[in-house]
């Protein structure tokens, strides 16, 4: 079945709106996944699960070679399934941009999560705001693509001027709804970061 980008003139405004909404949903989902990695003062397995470990010469995400848990708010426990990987896991955690200082007892690796300084919290909030703005720019780009497609359909006489305007109004409403979600997610994450 042809998609919106195939230049097919049988596209309807409803098709364009559905495709735009799907892309916006994906943009918001990707942003949420990215924000999980912004560290708060609380220990969570998500902080380290994607740390890349050199596992027998192959860069492998940590969660594929070990079980990860957070028994309390100040530490993450890593239990490698292959004890031979312990040294590499420890090295990768130390080299990660998070500044971890792991220790191991021969069976498990403990990753203490130090409390965030106020300066580091403000730095993380600035990083959060940049990521949120990037997400909003992506949403606006998706809306622009939808508007361009509607205009092209009108130029090609596939839809009327009124259908184009109604479609653009609907695109704007969809964009506003997704921007609101981004703002809510950002506000919640900022509260989490600033919580002492």
Which helices and strands occur, and which strands form pairs?
Elements: H1 13-36, E1 52-55, E2 58-61, E3 66-72, E4 75-80, H2 86-95, E5 103-104, E6 109-112, H3 118-155, H4 161-194
Antiparallel strand pairs: 1-2, 3-4, 4-6, 5-6
Helix pairs in contact: 1-3, 1-4, 3-4
| Second CATH tier, the architecture of the largest domain | Orthogonal Bundle
Overall average pLDDT = 88
The major sheet is characterized as:
4 strands, antiparallel
Would you count the extended β strands for me? 6
Please state the overall shape, judged from the principal axes of the Cα atoms: elongated
Could you say what the CATH topology of the largest domain is called? Topoisomerase I, Chain A, domain 4
User: Which range does the strand content fall in?
Assistant: 5-15%
Number of helices: 4
Percentage of residues in helical conformation: 40-55%
Our count of domains comes out at: 2
Structural class: alpha+beta
Low-confidence runs of at least 5 consecutive residues: 1-9
- Record the strand order, biggest sheet: 3-4-6-5
- What is the CATH class of the largest domain? Mainly Alpha
Mind telling me the CATH superfamily name of the largest domain?
A: Ribosome-recycling factor
End-to-end gap: 53 Å
Helix and strand pattern: HEEEEHEEHH
> What value does the Rg take, in angstroms?
23 Å
């Amino acid at each position: 079945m042809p998609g919106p980008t195939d230049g097919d003139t049988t596209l309807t405004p409803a098709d364009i709106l559905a495709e735009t909404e799907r892309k916006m949903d994906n943009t918001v989902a990707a942003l949420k996944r990215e924000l999980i990695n912004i560290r708060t003062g609380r220990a969570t397995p998500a902080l380290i699960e994607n740390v890349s470990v050199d596992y027998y010469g192959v860069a492998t995400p940590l969660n594929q070679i070990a079980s990860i848990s957070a028994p309390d708010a100040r530490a993450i426990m890593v239990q490698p399934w292959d004890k031979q990987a312990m040294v590499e896991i420890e090295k990768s955690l130390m080299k990660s941009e998070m500044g971890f200082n792991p220790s191991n007892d021969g069976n498990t690796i403990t990753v203490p999560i130090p409390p965030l300084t106020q300066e580091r919290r403000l730095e993380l909030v600035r990083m959060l705001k940049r990521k949120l703005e990037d997400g909003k720019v992506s949403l606006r780009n998706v809306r622009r693509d939808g508007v361009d497609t509607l205009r092209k359909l009108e130029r090609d006489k596939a839809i009327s001027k009124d259908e184009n305007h109604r479609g653009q109004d609907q695109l704007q409403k969809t964009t506003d709804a997704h921007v609101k979600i981004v703002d809510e997610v950002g506000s919640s994450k900022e509260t989490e970061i600033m919580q002492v």
